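hey so i finally got around to running the thing on that chain from the lab meeting. sorry it took forever, my laptop kept dying and i had to restart like 3 times. anyway pasting the input first so we r on the same page abt which one it is
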Amino acid sequence: MLDSKKTNILLAMAGAAALMAASPALAQETPAPAAAEAATAAPATTTAPAADAAAPATTEEPAEPGAVGGEQHGKLTVVGMFMEADIVVKVVMVGLLLASVFSWALLLIKLFELGSLNSRTDRFLEAFRGARTIADMRRIATSDEFEGNPMADMAAAATEEIELSRSAGLSVAGEHRDSAITRASAAVAAVQSGLSKRLSGGQQFLASTGSTAPFIGLFGTVYGIMNSFIGIANTNTTNLAVVAPGIAEALLATGIGLFAAIPAVIFYNYFNTRIAGYGTRSDGFQAELMNAISRQLDKGA
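ok and heres what got predicted. didnt touch it at all, straight out
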């Protein structure tokens, strides 16, 4: 009995010793997973700065203001498009601009001419209607004050013909009265034909500019667009940024053509109206002049 108790006590003591011996080994084995996790996490933390350091190297730098796109945008102005246009398109543009300048110059010249002509005609008619004889009519018509005035030239031509007939010994107040009046009327008609040519100066240029400038501009546009399509075929691209400048340069020619044509047509119609009005006024004066001469011949003056 005592032996069995001793045996049990010894077995218990041996088990306790075994447990005590095994507990340090377990204590050393349990931190291993934590150390493994720390080891796996450490490379991740060390590689992150490397990735961050490499990131700026791969970012693209912003485009500078002088890039190609910026230059193309800067050229899309009237002056820029003109400078970049083909030589044929440039010639068309320059010709149309010169035509426009001449049209505006004609506007100023003819406005001054017709305005001065009407004012001088008013003064002449006032003086002419105060004449009492054919000699007075001639003196007023040939005075320096009314030199170059169309109606003064008409009166001078008619009265000169009467004086020439009288100097030739013809009875202008008697039997040769009708023939003298007929010759005077023919002299007035000759002056009127010259008046029409004089007042219509520059009208042909305005009419030609108004009718042909749009088509000349269209020719420049067609030529420019043709070159643009050739450039598209050569570069093998349909990018709008590449195609747009050439087409815009071509369309500028049509715009300048319209800029030259529209004022020319307006000026032509305006001056046609004023010239026709002065022609009607000269026709009325012709009748007034011949009536005054006939009246003076009937009076024997």
